[in-house]
Design brief:
By secondary structure, the protein is mainly α. It is built from nine helices and two strands. A two-stranded antiparallel sheet has the order 1-2. A hairpin with a 3-residue loop joins strand 1 and strand 2. It is globular.
Length: about 260
């Protein structure tokens, strides 16, 4: 392995070893530390999006995104969040009428708020363990994708969007996520839930990969490699949570349905 790649891998591993225990620990403790961490991460995502997408009013857009994500995290009223979301989208659409990337700037309101907000809504609905399971699915597909993709290589998954992603990485990451999901079900749920967790783990893995590709497409259209350089070896916040925030709404809706109907 060439030195530059080795250095990058070392940075990724060290950063993950530092950040993952912090995230798990704060999630376990819960309110108010989890919500404070979520506000910081949400504000960083707002800053990234408003600086990643070229524009003339980055501060205004960043503050608008931050206001929405704060409402999603702190306000229990869905009506308030929806009204603020829609009014903010209209405001940014109007404010950005002379911007080249008007659509992406407006998309940021929904992308950040619904995506990251769904992770917090999921936690408030199902608590630590099932939210931890969801994070494990996303981390597993990322890890499996990197290991299998870099080892086996083979045909590219979407060469025009993300040249480094392969079908081997997608399949390997999905299988690892399914395996971790089955292990979780054996440890923390009833035996009859194993098949559900295996299948749903695989579905989340695929959707997370789609989310990764969506962000890669956006970055490629903007001619940038990383959303920022905030995380050593990993790029920016969006580069780490793209699959998470893309799949979170589906997971949240499913668990709400399960809790409502006792499935």
């Amino acid at each position: 392995m060439e030195q530059s790649k080795l250095n990058k891998v070392i940075k990724r591993v060290v950063t993950a070893l530092v950040l993952i225990p912090i995230v798990i620990g704060v999630m376990y403790v819960g309110y108010p530390y989890l919500h404070l961490m979520a506000l910081v991460v949400g504000a960083l995502m707002a800053w990234e999006w408003s600086n990643m997408v070229p524009n003339k009013n980055a501060v205004i857009y960043a503050n608008t995104y931050t206001l929405n994500i704060a409402a999603a995290i702190l306000f229990p009223s869905l009506l308030i969040v929806v009204l603020l979301l829609l009014s903010s989208a209209i405001f940014i659409w109007y404010k950005s009428k002379t911007e080249i990337h008007r659509g992406l700037l407006t998309l940021g309101v929904f992308y950040i708020t619904i995506g990251f907000g769904s992770v917090m809504w999921l936690y408030d609905t199902v608590g630590f363990l099932d939210t931890m399971w969801f994070l494990l699915m996303v981390w597993s597909v990322d890890t499996g994708g990197y290991i299998f993709g870099s080892t086996i290589k083979g045909p590219k998954l979407a060469p025009k969007i993300s040249p480094n992603k392969t079908w081997a990485g997608l399949i390997g990451g999905t299988l690892l996520a399914m395996g971790v999901s089955v292990a979780y079900s054996y440890l923390f749920t009833e035996a009859e839930n194993t098949l559900f967790y295996a299948i749903f783990g695989g579905i989340i893995a695929v959707i997370a990969q789609i989310g990764d590709l969506v962000e890669s497409h956006i970055k490629r259209s903007l001619n940038i490699k990383d959303s920022s350089n905030l995380i050593p070896g990993h790029g920016g916040i969006f580069d780490r949570v793209d699959g998470l925030i893309f799949s979170a709404p589906l997971v949240f809706i499913l668990f709400v349905y399960i809790n409502s109907y006792g499935i």
